[in-house]
Amino acid sequence: MKVMYTAEQKRVAVATFRRYKSYAKTLRVLGYPSRHVLFDWVRGSRPGCRKVTARALYRRYAWQVKLGAVNRMLGGESVIDIAADLAVTNHMLLYQWMHAWHLDGEEGLMTRSERKQREGYKTRAQLEASLPDDPVELRRLAARLLVDKAVLEQELDLVKKDAGVIPGQLTNTSKTIITQSLRGRLPLTMLLDSTGLRANSYQYARTALARPDRLAGLRVRVHEIARSSGFTYGSPRIWTALRRAGTVVSEKVVRRVMKQEHIPVHYAHRKRHYSSYEGESTPAPKDLVKRDFHAKEPNRLWLTDVSEFAARNGKVYLSPVIDCYDGKVVAYTTSRTPDKQLTQSMLEQAIGTLPARRTNFLILHSDRGGHYRAAEWIEALNAAGVTRFMSRKGCSPDNAACEGFFGRMKTEMFHERTWNTTGELETAIHRYMAFYNNQRIKTSLGGITINEHRNQLESTLTN
């Protein structure tokens, strides 16, 4: 039974509360009303307070409204303000919603009918019962579903052909391609409605597709350059190669063409690195290079290291000498085992490239691997007048330029490929070394190869 109170009773109750400043004492003195009703009377008597608008006694709230109120409560908003916004007469109802949500989540906020509606149709009879009875409406619905099915099939075909296409997020060009392919057997207006494409956007994209491809020749040249580099060139180097060939185009256009044509570029995957450290077997010289890997002339600062390349039936170890002047590979050797003969034969080849009369001071920098602590290595360097420097123990950045060479090499010719045999891998390494010195474009040299840079230097010295 709902108790009704007069305006005089409300006024007395509010005045009593203001005198005692306590809800409990006011209720004990007057004996009425309930605590929540008194709270609403006191709040409503304050100046400028937002009053709750009375609603129908049995008003029902959708579960989405309840969930929104719960989220606002979790966000820290006042329960009284939320109740006023939703026209909830008793703000305690919001606490009930919060409690139901904590127990059962969203389903706790739903009525039985809302739960059934959310569960969908479990039987064929339920689904058929939900369909309209009007035959005209059924034919209209069937036609729409037929168009949607055809559009979805074409969209899936595009996804299979182009991995960059995201279902549900097609560009206007892709939507136009789908519409054009279906236009001969389905109404154009229904196709545009199904794809969400406006008529003016369709006409614009259709006209653009009808134009001849002005980048057709460029696409062929980009494919040729990428293939000749073993798919090691990214857009900057391909753009440089095009510029050298006399083709003037923006690098952004090259990048876009590579993306559209799905031209791959090999990238590295980090794996365990080979280590040749065998302890402090002989005294190590100080590192006076101090990570300054720049040289003003050839044969002034060399770097060396050993790296491994794994095939399915074994490993190949590479030992090169890099000239810091322009990054040239002075000499290199490969072997199936990382023994001292690998580095010693490489050193003999590198020393053999030095001119007979050498006036500059040559430094050979390495890490602290056991190959570079051997007596044969030290004797060969002393006999050739080459000074050896070493990195600090366990500090690869001290030999970063040589590590960077290995990283670029593995990115461009080793990773993203399957190497079945070590013989196949050794052949690829020899081929890459020739490519690196003679054909590979270096942007740090102004877009020319190392061999061209050395030829320019020799011609300058001769003149």
From TrEMBL:
GO biological process assignments: DNA integration
InterPro entries in UniProt: Homeodomain-like_sf, HTH-like_dom, Integrase_cat-core, RNaseH-like_sf, RNaseH_sf, Transpos_IS3, Transposase_IS3/IS150/IS904
Residue span(s) of domain Integrase catalytic: 294-458
NCBIfam families per UniProt: transpos_IS3
Top-level taxon of origin: Bacteria
Molecular functions per Gene Ontology: nucleic acid binding
Stored Pfam families: HTH_21, rve, rve_2
Protein name: Transposase for insertion sequence
PANTHER family with a match to the protein in the record: TRANSPOSASE INSF FOR INSERTION SEQUENCE IS3B-RELATED, TRANSPOSASE INSO FOR INSERTION SEQUENCE ELEMENT IS911B-RELATED
Organism: Bifidobacterium subtile
Primary role: Involved in the transposition of the insertion sequence.
